[in-house]
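Input chain follows. Return structure tokens only.
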Amino acid sequence: MVKEFFITVYLFIFKCFFTLFKIVPLKDKMVFVATFKQNSLFLFNEARRQDIPDKIVFLCKGKRLFDSSEVDKAEILCFETFHPIDWVKSVYHLATSKRIIVDNYYAFLSAITFKPDVICLQLWHAAGAIKTFGLKDRSIDTRPKRARTRFRKVYHQFHKITVGSEAQANIFIEAFSIPPENILRAGIPRTDLFYDKKMQNRAVKKLLDHNPKLVDKKVILYAPTYRDRQLDYFEMQLDIKRMADELGNEFVLLLKLHPAIKDKLDYEKLYPNFVFDYSDYPDVNELLLITDYLITDYSSIPYEFSLLNKPMIFYPYDLEEYSKERGLWGAYEDLVPGPIAQSTGEIIQLIKENRFDMAKVQEFAKKWNQYSKGHSSKNIIDFLYGMEEAQILTSSRSERSTS
């Protein structure tokens, strides 16, 4: 109840500032409210490629995601209450911009009303989902009625939600309780990387130049889902010593843990030349380019990794507990395109014996990347600026009819 009180007060203050700034006429601006980086960055680069003249503003949640070298001539603000000047500027931009792009759930959307000429686009941070979210998240049942009402108000602010597939569209319709017409079948911007060989080559060169020890080794990437309880105490569920002993001559292990996890061992020091910790590396898709085998659990990474047609292993060591707490979109074995392992020993055997059904991976990639064909960023910018909208929608209908 105390938390809800402070949220209510904050949203009231936000609404007051927003309403005041709405007096100012709308400007030709595109404002990103970003918790994640890559989708927004791909859209920014496409806008620059098309010479879109609008002012572009990035409002960063949590930390400063972008630097000026990445987003030339864009304004970057920290959208947090402990940066009061940036916060006021942020509210001003939100109230006076014609185009708002968000990539997550933001409570402030429940307290405001956009002018009629504004479009709010949800650029969700995942290309698919194993675990439930939104109104289907099981934890929502324990939240106060005021909170559940707020969630619905936020979801109903999304004029369009961009998706990479019909499967993803169906999830959003259910999770956000939105009508089908709110879906934009344009693809996921950051998947454009997997269709651009020049961009891929630059990323791979950067990674290998920085760490030459990866050049002559096969790369295993372990990227588990972040769990709330791990913030204060993290316990590695892989037997890394056994992996090093049995695979160390031919393989290396990259770790991509949530960067908020601080209480963890120095695995690089414990297993030199076998383990490399890339938890703070900003772009996981670049890591996927040098990955030969992916190990994960409930993450959305497989949806994009499948485009590379490489093997993946699923290691849901807490499946029963996790599915009860968070909920899954179906039976786990039906949701994943690779073998499910229950122990480090099983993982090692799968890799040694190369027991993977790559046809299943290809089918998974086709299903979840139906509209992500290498020009998703262009599709979205064209939609936002009224260019070739009919062509995008016609193409989407054609994809659906042949799927």
